[in-house]
Amino acid sequence: MYNSWRRGAILNAEEEERLILQKDLLCLTDAEIISLFPKFIMSVRRKDCGEYKSDTIFSIITSIQKYYEINGKNISLLSDIKFNSIKNYVSNTMRQKVQKGIGLFKRQAQVIPKETETMLWENGFLGYGDPETLLHTIFWIIGINFGLRGGQEHRDLSMENFKLETADNREQVLVYRETVSKTYRGGLDHRNIEPHTARAFENRQQPDRCPVHIFNT
After folding, report:
1. Which residues form the ZMYM2-like/QRICH1 C-terminal domain (predicted)?
2. Pairing of strands 162-166, 197-201
3. What average pLDDT does this structure show over 150-158?
4. % of residues, the chain, pLDDT over 70
5. Is the pLDDT of residue 183 over 70?
6. What region does 120 belong to: left with phi over 0, alpha with psi -120 to 50, or beta?
7. Is the separation of the CB atoms in 53 and 59 below 8 Å?
8. Non-local CB neighbours of 185 within 8 Å, separated by 6+ positions
9. What pLDDT band is residue 31 in, cutting at 50, 70 and 90?
10. If we measure between CA atoms, which residue out of 41, 45, 28, 55 comes closest to residue 85?
């Protein structure tokens, strides 16, 4: 990211600054870092030319610091007193982005209207008339009823994750129990965390759309 920014910045830089920008990141002196980094923080942009949110700016700086560490340079951009001007600039930039509302509102999944689901069933996009449609339907049933989050959780699924049980009212229930996910990895750190469990109950009103029936198909 820094190198991409550097190549663009060279085009509009004055002679003295151009000489600094031509240097590799690892070859910059402390004074050159102090001079250059505020401009980098101020002007670095995403590929779509939008501004980075505040926590991304922080991650960029810590990544550069890690790059220095990996290459044997003991530089602490956010804790060494000689780089206080960079620390203050990063802090002020992050504060300004928050005040401008950049990155405050995270994208959330939209609720799928009941009408959309009905349309998918009625037009044959969901069902079990052929293997491909059945595969789409299983994917839909799992997503709607069991709240799997990432693609990896879907890829890690096996029949061992599912079990048919009988509820107290004698209805059949399809039970999902996770094995591994982003929030449950097993091991020492997660020994006190219960794996995610979810249930899909029998749909006797619409048996053709019943998760238990489809699971048994």
Report:
1. 113-216
2. unpaired
3. 70
4. 84
5. no
6. alpha
7. no
8. none
9. very high
10. 41
| Tokens at 7, concatenated | 């190549």
Q: How far is CA 32 from CA 19, 82, 124, in A?
A: 10, 12, 64
String of b and e for 90-100 (b: at least 16 CB within 10 Å)?
beebbeebeee
pLDDT (mean) for 189-197: 58
- Asked if 62 and 76 touch (Cβ cutoff 8 Å), the reply is no
pLDDT tens digit sequence for 77-116: 888 999 999 999 988 888 888 777 776 555 555 667 788 8
Model confidence, pTM: 0.47
CA distance 96 to 74: 29
Residue holding tokens 């870092």?
33
CA angle 101, 63, 16 (to 5 degrees): 90
- Check: CB of residue 120 under 8 Å from CB of residue 139: no
Do 70 and 123 form a contact (C-beta atoms < 8 A)?
Answer: no
Cα-Cα-Cα-Cα torsion 109, 63, 89, 26, nearest 10 degrees, comes to: -150
pLDDT of residue 108: 58
Helix (H, G, I), strand (E, B) or coil at 163: strand
Instruction: Enumerate helices (H) and strands (E) in the chain, giving the number of each.
Output: 9, 3
